[in-house]
């Protein structure tokens, strides 16, 4: 049987096991193959989510009905959120690049539990399938918003129970990946790979893995309680029966705010790999960046209440959650200052990965600073549940995690395919995305400041011009994404072959062939220098 | 070091049965105090007994007593996180 994929002809993990065909991929325990399975899975769901988001923007292009009715609109923003958050951003970095890159970066031949790793992907696929089935069965797709807030999610007749069960299954996938990564980083580091020599991407995955392990079970419990509420009528969140509706919001956000750090921490780690390589300078403040990953994961797990400032929570709790939210800004700022300091007097090379990394710094900073507006209780009241929130979290999630993901794709995928993309179309795609992104989401923040609520089907005429601008921006953004993906994958399949170290990186993945062999290393590596010591790479 | 960590610790049947007997005794104790008129203290008493039982299961049946420092830290971080999550949530409820 001929191999289903073969980007290069040299012996590598694509062909050196002699096993080919679909089964050799979907039952493979090789971390690189599982990483690629995740990559294609999350990209497929990203395209679904992007399409839904595009449809939402078209609906909001003008007041009144444009293309869909109100019920379909409610389902659209719910499914857009569920798909983008649970099926794209959360699994994207740990699942795809964590799996592909992390074991090689620490000098291991695979993760600690390869079969568990495969099970993680299968659970992800199973959960995703259940979510998709929920859209087309029962009494229609869920219309609750991705937060599944009670009491509405108990009372709506749409297919909430099945969708929630799908998310529950996906959560187990995330927990298993976390357990696998913590164990791998503790147990499988190569000789000489001390904690002080770990690449900062690995540090970020380590911090992320702890959040996955500790916070995700709470999401699981919360989702089970929704199902119990719907099927058994337990009344846990119904004040009429002695329940507490705020308890649901606490439980949901105890997971879902740390989940933001599952999304952004590995993205920050990828940016920390890209910036020194394309600045030809060692990273500034290695220890502080490593520390800040742990600090963000720890402090970020204690700020969930800032999603509930208008919910009726106690004033003292609001004060504490507001204070803790400001505390998280400190390690986040440490990272930003260290990236900028790394750039200072560097020999900067503006290739596609670096452009995405630089735009990440700007967009994440805007997202982070607007987060402080939401974290301060006084200003939060004014913009709570407005389009300002929508703009803010898209700056963090798409401008941050999304742009970092596309940067990481340009940076690491050539390593795993042995070929590279064309630079000029990549540059054009980045320009389109950067412009389209800011037009789309900055308009939303302005709309929020003017008072346009989020999740409303219709709006007042005074909001029409900015909504039109935002929709046009989304078209520019989507065209940039399409150009990026076409150029990237065309290059990976048909582009110029690259050597072992096209960018001049100093971490271990650049010391082995492109694409890597199944066993990664001919002999177990012995690490003798830090991950950003470019003098040892032999590059100019 | 890795070989040491991978070494299996075999717990004798006698010790396992003794722990099991203590667990049964604590269960009986839980039932007994549930019938006393202790008011709110009944809940705290039940929780304390349940914590002791959980500790015994983790220490002996799950072998935490024989594990190294790393896994003990992992357990501590996990329990501390859970306590903080519950504590901060109840802080809101207490002052609402």
Explain this structure.
The complex is a heterodimer of chains A (540) and B (96). Chain A is built from 15 helices and no strands. Chain A has one domain: Up-down Bundle (Cytochrome C Oxidase, Chain A). Chain A is globular and about 65 Å long. With 540 residues, chain A is mostly helical. Chain A starts with 21 loop residues before the first helix and ends in a 46-residue tail after the last helix. Residues 1-6 of chain A have low confidence and may be disordered. In chain A, α8 (245-279) packs across α13 and α13 runs antiparallel to α14. Chain B is an all-alpha fold. Chain B has two domains: 1-62; 68-96. Helix content of chain B is 78%, strand content 0%. Chain B has four helices and no strands. Chain B has helices at residues 2-6, 13-34, 41-61, 69-95. Chain B is flat and about 50 Å long. The N and C termini of chain B lie far apart (52 Å). Classes of the chains: A mainly alpha (540), B mainly alpha (96). Chain A binds chain B through residues 186-187, 210, 213-214, 218, 244, 246-247, 250, 254, 301-302, 305, 312-317, 320, and chain B through 2, 70, 77-78, 81-82, 84-85, 88-89, 91-96.
